[in-house]
Design goal:
The protein contains nine helices and eight strands. An eight-stranded parallel beta sheet has the order 2-1-3-8-7-4-5-6, sandwiched between helices. The model is unreliable at 1-6 (pLDDT under 50). With 295 residues, the chain is an alpha/beta fold. The chain is 31% helix and 16% strand.
């Protein structure tokens, strides 16, 4: 595994007994890869910003009436993404996630750009053949290629489609004509458009019902509204707010086994720590929903 030699700031600044890789049920994987981003750059700084902000997250969760850190949250050393080609970081992510999954742990990848999800999802599919994917995103990411690369962040879900994995896309509000034509012809995913969610035309339980027993959750933070998530490369108006997101995630974790997740595309804004903190709290929510039951 090609990790950095320098130690990574551990999630939450937990005491050693709660971040021991040998016993922790959840494992955070920082992957600061940025190779195909468009518009605003900076996603390579995302994982470090999330880990730093995690030190400020309150460890008691009032919704769960629990302290999720007691399940154990280990943090891998930051992966040093290869610059040889666009395929190498995806392969590195695959290896890291598979390493966690074979030990029956819950991986949470911190990006970095969305292209690395292809590696994480492939690793999960190998262990869970019935896997489905819940994608929270502003963009469909169904282009066959973008800027001459089929491994672009804008093509990641097209690559997942090729694995014949059921996909549920939530919060979508931007795609190109090519993507729309592909979706209409192939119907590779169930799309819950942002405009319909905002109008109250879908219940969270309806989204959860589209998924299989085992689920991988991929969250591009631009799925959230720029009012609460301005720190991303391609912000889009009309996104989800905090409680919208939790309402969607809660029944997914309650009804299915979520085997892994990623949180991607945070591009920190100097002087504005709120988006970093939101992502850190979201990591903690994912751990909480995975191992504890809301009251």
């Amino acid at each position: 595994m090609n990790h950095a030699n320098a130690p990574t700031l551990g999630f939450g600044g937990l005491e050693p007994e709660y971040c021991d890789p040998a016993t922790a049920k959840a494992v955070v994987i920082p992957m600061p890869y940025e190779g195909t981003t468009s518009y605003r750059s900076g996603t390579k700084e995302g994982p470090a910003a999330i880990l730093l902000a995690s030190r400020q997250v309150e460890l008691y969760d009032e919704e769960l009436d629990a302290e999720p850190f007691t399940a154990g949250i280990a943090t891998m050393a930051e992966i040093q993404p290869s610059r040889r080609d666009y395929a190498a970081p995806i392969a590195q992510t695959y290896e890291a996630v598979r390493e966690v999954l074979v030990r029956d742990r819950f991986p949470i990848v911190l990006g970095g750009e969305h292209s690395i999800s292809a590696g994480a999802i492939r690793a999960a599919r190998e262990l869970y053949p019935d896997l489905s994917v819940l994608q929270i995103d502003a963009h469909a990411d169904l282009r066959d290629s973008y800027e001459d690369s089929p491994l672009s962040h804008a093509s990641v879900m097209r690559r997942v489609c090729e694995l014949k994995i059921p996909i549920t896309q939530v919060g979508i509000r931007n795609l190109c004509a090519e993507e729309m034509a592909f979706w209409r012809q192939e119907r590779p995913s169930a799309i819950f458009w942002a405009r319909d969610l905002n109008a109250g035309r879908h219940a969270p339980e309806e989204i959860a019902a589209t998924l299989t027993d085992h689920v991988f959750v991929t969250i591009d933070v631009d799925g959230l509204d720029p009012a609460i998530m301005p720190a991303t490369g391609t912000p889009e108006p009309g996104g989800l707010f905090w409680y919208d997101l939790l309402d969607i995630l809660r029944p997914v974790f309650a009804r299915h086994t979520v085997v892994g997740a990623d949180i991607l595309e945070l591009a920190p804004i100097p002087g504005n720590v709120a988006p970093d903190f939101l992502c850190a709290k979201l990591v903690y929510k994912l751990v909480g929903y995975r191992f504890f039951t809301p009251r």
